[in-house]
Each structure stands twice: as structure tokens, then as C-alpha cells.
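Incident review: delayed structure delivery

Summary: a single-chain prediction request sat in the queue longer than the usual turnaround. Root cause was a stuck worker, restarted by the on-call engineer. No data loss occurred. The affected request and its eventual output are reproduced below so the record is complete for anyone auditing the incident later.

Affected input:
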Amino acid sequence: MGEYNILENIKEPRDLDKLDQKQVESLCGEIREKLISTVSKKGGHLASNLGVVELTVALHRNFNFPADKLIFDVGHQCYTHKLLTGRYDRFETLREKDGLTGFMSPKESEYDSFLTGHSSTSISAGCGFAAAKTIKGEDGYVVCVIGDGALSGGLAYEGLNNAGKRGGNFIVILNDNKMSISKNVGGMARHLTVVRTSPAYHKFKRGTGRILQRIPLIGTKAYRGAERVKNAFKRLIYRKTIFEDMGFTYLGPIDGHDLEKLDLILDAAKHQRRPTLVHISTVKGKGYEFAEESPSAYHGVSAFDIDTGERKTSGTDYSKSFGNSLCKMAAADSRICAVTAAMGESTGLGAFSHAYPKRYFDVGIAEQHAVTFCSALAASELIPVFAVYSSFLQRAYDQLVHDAAAQSLKLVLGIDRAGIVGEDGITHQGVFDVAFLNTIPNVTIYAPVTFNELDTYLYKATYEAPSVAAVRYPRGGECELPSFYQNATGSFAVYGNGENAIVTYGRTASQAFKAAAHLKNIRVVVLYQIKPIDLNSVKSVLDCKNIYFFEEGMRVGGVGEHFEVLCRENGYNGEFSLTAIEDEFIPQQTVAQALNEYGLDAEGIYRKVVGNNGTKA
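Output delivered after worker restart:
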């Protein structure tokens, strides 16, 4: 790998016009090599990007971006787009601090129309861009690329419902690779299977296409002009697609790795002059054997060895520990069910899905549905456990309020990737869940530090909390802790008896202990139940001169604010200092870099305490 003779000369999309068909095919090969090489070092989203190489090249050959608007749903498959839009020279900075983001970002390039990091948003955004073009009297196309997995999200249908009513040059590309992150489920997946595999339709389509295109001089025009007739015959052969029912012209499905076919169908879509859906079939992980064989495993990857596919980091992490604990509990209690929003393996539920398939539910990329679904399970005297990334749980806030907490139902939330996540950047940082859950009555939140504590507090959430209960844990492996640390079972623990206190929760406890080792006259208080806060934990620091609260979450609405209020209400008159995330989004960088920047690592904690009262060891 490493020869990019064509790719390195693509400075902007119009350079593609200079290439003949053979060169374009070679370019696609170079792009795949560049993607595999870069992601093997940096980590990132691999399989999804390998699957859309030809599609992205064809889009840039057939449209005039950024005058036309291009929106990739989720955005994690935009790496080829970045390479073709003047960012080749910076591609090695992918997902680094101050480098290229792993998603689309308007701050990064004019070719990135819209910030995309979560699923199912592209069609709604596309509707907005199309409406704006109409109001402003602008020509041009709006193109949304959405995967079949993202069509399991309800927002996509809200967008489709409105887009189908619009006129104008609105094109949706359905990238059908039969995958989201985990294998696709549900009615749409079955519907697309019917469309893809209708032999009568495909035989008819190939035959009419060949006949029409053989007519001298007017063959191509006749082929395009016969779309309405073709569609009429198509409906006689198999049922109408849902997209046509929603007001779209439907084209496809075609091979999404065939450049000539892509050019033809995109040209046909441009001539429709009305909402059009182009259905293409692709292979997730295309061109890299290991990713093709295990697309879920290579969806989002850490650094790996290209020749063997072996990850350079391994071992048990919090997600696997959570899954193991849940399996153990499910073995003893047949009421326990596990729910995921298309991320079973990523959230540690792989073993559960095999051991208890009747109690395992993958609802697709549909967090709102997941919470309401879980609420009904709970109302039926089952115990649903919803494993979900912190940044994705925020999509279901209304359902948590209305369907779960307001009914005091026992729904357990396994909040994965809680806290700073690092290189995935602002759309994925798990720093908001505590603040928004703090606003909801009837919710209990636990913050274990170790794997053993995760087991303990998952049990408490399931059997001791009165209503909705959340157990939040970070990405990655277990935190480093001092030898005197004891796994907790209560709501808080106090280490030391100094007249100055460091108070924190979650993995920040590890950093607090490291800092405390170099400080004198200090005590460390670790909170394990952070909502509601145990009043005894507050009383344990009322005799301190200084209280330093460190929180890997938002300051506004966080635990630190509530803790200070309780301290003041109980007569505390000393100094209270809160270090947390201010009113801002956290950009991409490593977790270590972010903790340092926000004063949440051992160095920052040490500086804060010493700077205030000189309690150096």
C-alpha cells in the first residue's frame, strides 16, 4: 500500500472529469488502499466507508457540489468524500485533535453541507435545503445518502413523508448493504429484500433496457423516457414500493459498485425533476477481506494490523463487563430482557443475544421506540434493560419523561460511553446524560468505578431502585486505582480525613486518587449513587475548609451543582469549587487530551487544589 498516483492529484471534484473510465476504476482502488491504511493506524469507521467508494465518486462526477447539496446520513461514511474535496493532504490527521473530523462538518469544508453524527437525519435536513433553494430561487439538486439501517429510525419517515410532497430536484440515495451496525431487523429490511430479489422484475428491467438502448440515435432518450411505462409494468409484476406510496419516483435497485450503472441511474434521477429515490446495493467492507466477512466488527474499529485484521487493543472493557453481568442476572431471572438500538455487539450484548434469544430485542436505530417499547415491557411485569450509548440516549428524552418515569416503571438503562469519548468528537461525547436525567423525577443514577461495582450497581438498578434506573460507565478498560481502594456497595465512600475534600464520581475517581497521592491534608469522596444524592455524603464533607468537586459532565444541571446546593442548605460556609464541562461542545481529541484540557486529569486536579491552598505533599 502507499501508491496514490491518481488520488494525490485530485484537488477538487472537477478533477474527476479529466479521468477516463479505467482511471476512475483505478482511483477507487487507491481510495480503498488509503482508507485501510489510514484507519488501521488511527481507528475509525472502516466497513461503511469501503462500501461507498464507487457511489461517492459517481456522486461527485454527476453533481456540482457544493452548489448542489450533499448530506450523508450519520456521516461516518464520508471519508471518500473528504479525499475528493481537497482534504487528501490532511487525511492523515483524521480524528486527531485539530485534524479532520470523522464525520461531516461545515466548519471543516464548504462541501460538508450539514453536521451529521447521528442516524436518520439526512432526509429532514435535505427537505430544509430544498425548501431554502425554492425560497431563494436557486437551481441545483439536494442529494441525501441514507443507509438501509438508518431507515429503521422514525425521523427518516417523517422526512420521507414531507419530501414526497415537494417538487423540485430532491434525490435520496438508499445505500442498501443489509446492515446498520448490527444486522438489520424489521419490516423495512424485509421490504427491501423483496425489492432486491424479485427475479421477474429484474428480468423485465434488463430486457426492456437492452431493447430500448439498441434503437439507433434515440435509444438512450427512449430508455429514459420509458420510465413511466416501465414503472406501470413493474407494478403489475410485484407490489408497489413504499417509497412510491410516499410520493417518490423509485429507481433501482442496481449494483452500487458498478460505476457505469451508477452514472446512468444518477443521470436518470437528475432528469426526473421530482422527488426521486435511487436504490443501490453495496457490500459493507468492500475490498478488505476481514471487513467483508465481519462488517459489524469493522464498523468502528481501533487500530489494527492490515495483514491479519487483528486489533492492536483487546481485553475486557466496561461494555463486555456489563454484558457478562446481565447474562448472569438473566440466568437467575426469566423476567430480564435486553434491548438494543442496532448496537448489540458494541454494547456488550452479543453473548446475551445467543443465550436468551427470546428475551433479546434489537429494535433498529430507534432509541425513542426502544424506550417506549421497554416501558410497555415493564408495564407487563418484565424487567427491560436498554443498553445504549450516552449520546444516543439523548434522542429519547421525551419518552423517558412521558412513557417511563411518569408511570414509575422499572426500566434499566445501561448507559455506555458515558463521559468523554475522544476521537469521535462533538456528536458522540457522553457528557449530557447526567444533566438531562437530573431533570426527570423518579430516576436513579449509579456511577460505578470498577467492573465489580458495575456488577453491583446493575443489580441495585434492577432490584432496589424504585423506578427508572441508570447505570453509567465509560468507554474502554477499567480505571487504575490505588491498592487500598475497596469495591463499593453503598451510595458513597470516603478515603482519608483531611480538612480539604475532593469529591467526584465515575472514572474521574482514578484521577482524584492519583492527585491525592501528592497532596496533604486531603480526603477523597467517591459518589456511586449520583441521583438522588445521599445526604450522608454531603454531611461527610461539611467539616472541610475547601470542597473541590470534579465532574466529567456538564456543569449546568450536573451533580456538582446539586451537591453544592445540598452543602449550603445544610450549613456549609466554606469554599466550594466545581470543575466540570462549561457551556460548550468538546471537539475531537483523545480522552487523555480532553481530560487534561478541562482540568479533569490528575495534573489538573492537583493544580486546582494546590493553587487554592497549597496542600502539596
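Verification: The domain at 318-472 is CATH 3.40.50.970 (Rossmann fold).
Action items: add queue-age alerting; document worker restart procedure.
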